[in-house]
Amino acid sequence: QVQLVESGGGLAQAGGSLRLSCVASGSTFSSYALGWFRQAPGKEREFVAAISKSGGSTFSADSVKGRITISRDNAKNTMYLQMDNLKPEDTAVYYCAAKQTALRYNDRSMYDYWGQGTQVTVSS
Question: What's the pLDDT at 105?
């Protein structure tokens, strides 16, 4: 079992940047593929980005492609989401998630563990 804690959210202006972190504890970090999802008020939770267990493969949603970088440091049990050129539509609660399978990175039902979320608000 793994516990996940996100941090780094906050208020940013459009065009600005934020870096989110997700720290894991309780199990072997490198055994899990990881993902970022977000949920805006009144909307379903949606896929943002994912990274494989080794960090060698990354995936991102079309809506954020070119503006985000997902990475992980297995020695620090930490995953990051660097978000640049933020837009008001990026406003949401951002969740990190972990799973042991290597399939369907963008499918939230495949993830076994979730953090509590961190709020990102982008003003225009």
Answer: 94
